[in-house]
Amino acid sequence: MSFDGASVKQPTTDHVRDPSGIDVFRLRAGRAVAELAPGRGGLITRFSVDGDEILYLDRKTFLDRKQNVRGGIPVLFPIAGRLTGDRYQALGQSFPMRQHGLARHASWEVMDVEQARVSMEFRSSPASKVNFPFDFVLRMSVDLGRAGFRTLALEITISNTGTQPMPTHFGLHPYFFVPDQDRDRVRVEVDAQYAFNNTTGESGPWDGRLDLTQPSLDLHLSDLQSQTSLLHIPGRSPRRIEMSDFFTTLVLWQSPLQDFLCVEPWSAPSDALNTGVCLRTLEPGDSCSGEVIISV
User: What 8-state DSSP symbol labels residue 181?
Assistant: First the structure.
């Protein structure tokens, strides 16, 4: 679904229905447009500034509710990545958990709409407790209306509403539109000390070099020295990704012959519910917050 925000000056939000029947919230501010689909996992499906489409979206996977959506900005919770054996231990039991968790498959509830800002929630339920036996509220606010109208801000708050300490692992999975034919000229600036190659199993110091012409990429960067990264694509404005210190890991992922590169802020490395590395635990009644800002 495409909208032209060129003539819009003041921040606005419209609630529309995609021709497929999926509810979509359209945020517009200045010459920027963003769209999100709460019923499809709280997915941000579009971010565009001055006609420059920043995100990739495979609409076929978006329209098919049986598929994982390939594109937009999927929300990863209560894990990011994959667990060893797709299981973890909690409260003296073993629980199954699919890759990237539950949030991206859930229907989120919209809580507040104000100008070019929408807040929505994913709450624990009897169904979620089959895989994650904790009471929680995950709230995410999507804000297009900050000064300059060239920024998509994602504000996240996770609350433990239960009576047991709750492990917390969260991530975002932005698919940036990168034409495959331009891949050899794309640059990514990330200031990190350590790299783990999830494809080869190799790990070691990060030298800052990145070969995006290889068939696939699954690189996990940690010991971040800066919370700001830059994605340079020929003929387009640099994509600036800023994240609060809630996020400790940045994952770079691509698939062969596809027009995207994912630059993913995670709060902890993959398998954190098993390893405990950088894993945050919320006591009953406690909350934690993070923010990711994408700007051009």
Answer: G
Q: Please report which confidence band the pLDDT of residue 2 belongs to, taking 50, 70 and 90 as the band edges.
A: very low
Q: Which residues pair with 113 in a beta bridge?
A: 118
pLDDT in tens, 236-280: 999 999 999 999 999 999 998 899 999 999 999 999 999 999 999
Q: Is it true that the peptide bond before 78 is cis, omega within 30 degrees of 0?
A: yes
The identity of residue 150, as a single letter, is: R
pLDDT tens digits along 143-192? 999 989 999 999 999 999 999 999 999 999 999 999 999 999 999 999 99
DSSP assignment of the chain equals -----TT--S-EEEEEE-TTS-EEEEEEETTEEEEEEGGGTSEEEEEEETTEE-B-B-HHHHH-TTS---BSB-EEBS-SS--GGGEEEETTEEEE--TTBSGGGSPPEEEEE-SSEEEEEEE--TTGGGT--S-EEEEEEEE--STTS-EEEEEEEEEE-SSS-EEE--EE--EEE--GGGGGG-EEE--EEEEEETTT--EEE--S---TTSS-EEEEEEEES-SEEEEE-TTSPPEEEEE-TT--EEEEEE-TT-SEEEEEEESS-TTHHHH-TT-EEEPTT-EEEEEEEEE-
Q: What is the pLDDT of residues 37-78, one digit of tens each?
A: 999 999 999 999 999 999 999 999 999 988 899 999 999 999
pLDDT higher than threshold 90 for residue 14: yes
* Cα(203)–Cα(278) distance, integer angstroms: 17
Provide the Cα torsion 79, 81, 83, 86; round to 10°: 90
Q: What CA–CA distance (Å, rounded) separates 26 from 202?
A: 42
CA distance 200 to 270: 15
